[in-house]
């Protein structure tokens, strides 16, 4: 073998080893550093008087940790703002006034009052006395039609004008024995806060939280696709019966319906969303109201308001406050705010 041949062989061998080395390093890098495909973790718990589902995914940390943090946050809010718990609202209802209220309580009361004003009282956070009379305050309460006299009396201690709230002096008081009930807004607020908790742990986390029909988006599916939300058929057998679809990349949607808490007597359905003017379940042909909003708190509160205001001014007026409305009527016809359909396209 000539010397030229030997050196040629040596050189090609070196090249071969170099290629092998580079490709194995590349392969190992790919195997170790490639992004794991995003998987969604689901967790459902009974919280806030309903089933709450957190669906979350993270490329940074365990989604179990994120879901647990979200659940803990919602539990904290339920305890703090529930009318039946031992939190700040229960305390206010016992004493009739509170000094030195904290920032969060202040924010929630302020928001509730603002929505009450914006909806001319269709949303009213002082109906606790009435809600108790009808037995809608608790799953286990006896549901019954109160007498006219009872309703008349209860109306004497309801109405948001009975709330005095002075933000600067951190003061709130209730006149005429009024009692605060944040049941139509606190669930949405809890969803917002739980999402904020998740985002604080991992800003890039995606998913959604569904608290019994109050849904807030953590982030788009796989980072780029919308979450498909079904609007329930109010007379359907289950949540699977859907009449319309909404595609959400962010923000929130909430539905208030007459099928959630109700009883039927003499073929009449009595449900938990009350008309603050009459003290009776709101009866204007609406059987469900769905609102798309910037936050779950706003969607939640405006959905209750839209249920009470109905077509006019609900569908037409509420978009001013960032609330797009879909109403389902008794005859199953539907009405939508202008712009609602934008969320019905992928
Ligand atoms: P759900 O809790 O079924 O999602 P809502 O968000 O509409 O329903 O809240 C209904 C609850 O709010 C009632 O159970 C009661 O505590 C309270 N509520 C009833 N009527 C009104 C009203 N007109 N405005 C504000 N809160 C109301
Ligand atoms: Mg609501």
Can you tag this structure with a few keywords?
346 residues; alpha+beta; T-fold; eight-stranded antiparallel beta sheet; three-stranded antiparallel beta sheet; 9 helices; elongated; binds adenosine-5'-diphosphate; metal-binding; EC 2.7.1.180; ApbE
Q: In a nutshell, what does this entry contain?
A:
This protein has 346 residues and is α+β, with helices and mostly antiparallel strands. Helix content is 36%, strand content 23%.
Q: Sheet with the most strands?
A: 8 strands, antiparallel
End-to-end C-alpha gap: 72 Å
**Major sheet strand order:** 1-2-6-7-10-13-14-15
Number of strands: 15
Q: Write the element-wise H/E pattern from the N-terminal end onward.
A: HEEHHEHHHEEHEEEEEEEEHHEE
- The H-level CATH homologous superfamily of the domain at 226-346, spelled out, is ApbE-like domains
Question: Any chance you could write out the topology, listing elements then pairs?
Answer:
Blueprint: H1 3-33, E1 41-47, E2 50-57, H2 63-81, H3 88-95, E3 97-98, H4 103-118, H5 128-134, H6 148-155, E4 163-166, E5 171-174, H7 186-201, E6 206-211, E7 214-219, E8 227-232, E9 242-248, E10 252-257, E11 262-265, E12 268-271, E13 286-293, H8 296-309, H9 311-317, E14 324-329, E15 334-336
Antiparallel strand pairs: 1-2, 2-6, 3-5, 4-5, 6-7, 7-10, 8-9, 10-13, 11-12, 13-14, 14-15
Helix pairs in contact: 2-7, 7-8, 8-9
The structure holds adenosine-5'-diphosphate and magnesium ion (MG).
The site of adenosine-5'-diphosphate has 21 residues, from helix 8.
